[in-house]
Amino acid sequence: xxxxxxxxxxxxxxxxKALEKARILQRESERKVFSLVxxxxxxxxxERSEEEAAVLRLHRDTAEELCRRQVRRSVLKRKQEEVCDAxxxxxxxxxxxxxxxxxxxxxxxxxxxxISTAASIPDxxxxxxxxxxxxxxxxxSSTDLSKAQPTLTHxxxxxxxxxxxVKHVVSQNCDGLHLRSGLPRPALSELHGNMFIExxxxxxxxxEYVRLFDVTERTSRHRHGTGRRCNHCRDELRDTIxxxxxxxxxxxxxxxxxxxxxxxxxxxxxxxxxxxKVLKKYACLWSMNRAASxxxxxxIVNLQWTPKDDLAALKIxxxxxxxxxxxxxxxxxxxxxxxxxxxxxxxxxxPLLVEEVPSxxxxxxxxPGGQEDRSVEPEQQMExxxxxxSSVQGxxxxxxxxxxxxxxxxxx
Length: 412
Hints:
By secondary structure, the chain is α/β, with parallel strands linked by helices. It contains 12 helices and 10 strands.
């Protein structure tokens, strides 16, 4: 009986090995067929021999699959291209946008990384974006974001709000530039956090500490402790950044309540510098519970394709600073220069205790009246990034990218 059992086990192992070998050989055969068919498809049809045409007929399914893949690659490449409207077309679109803004009763602005590229902060999905570089296996440079200043677009948005043309701003950006432009905090929802703000969640209500430096130096996805402690309860402070794959729960600076209420009453939504690949997933921002005819009219300003383009009343292909400059001219509104003396961050910031000074190595924003004059005219703001080849980045840049890649590989 024991011999029969051993014999059966040996037979089972041999069968498994044979099956595995057959699978390996089949995969190798399929790879060779794909390679052969791929080479033949690259040749013009008129130059193929009868034998090559016969091979393609024999492997028709493989040829069709390779053609579908090529179409998908071409579509993806086309979506990643940056496109600028011609000058006359741009002016026509600007006039239409200006008319829509004047007629709007409740205009809400959604902003993405594209409005900060003029401050030498890289976007995510552009040709030199963070995700794009990581996808190509390249590293991203590390410089302090506290050197960045509000761009012309930030200052335009603040002016539009001051003139009561914009009711609320919903931003994906963590760079704090909307706050530093002077936009009132009740009118701002920073859905993914603010790099200058750390909080104590042990205190009730949550206690907030605004700093003059990037607090995310030691933090990352699922690790939000900054190493500093609350002045009141002595528990560890945490940053406010919402990383890829995380769900933000803080009331401020995320202000989801303000964002959803603004979206619920909006009749016009203006999207500036966002691919909308993340924002599109937040159903509460798009009034999807309304009938299509009763949803807000959508206006998009972006260099690349977005998944909302087909739903937009108007898509403007252009750089945010250029578009906003022309828009303000059409609205007959002056664009104020960023003035560090008016930057509210110096008023609301909480200074570090003496023992906390060594807790970070980030550059501190120099106060107004120092040796270095950082006020920038609107025209200069549009040219800030032309001579600066090194990207500036915060502690959150690239976080969660590996997780996304692992998910895609697993699905494949």
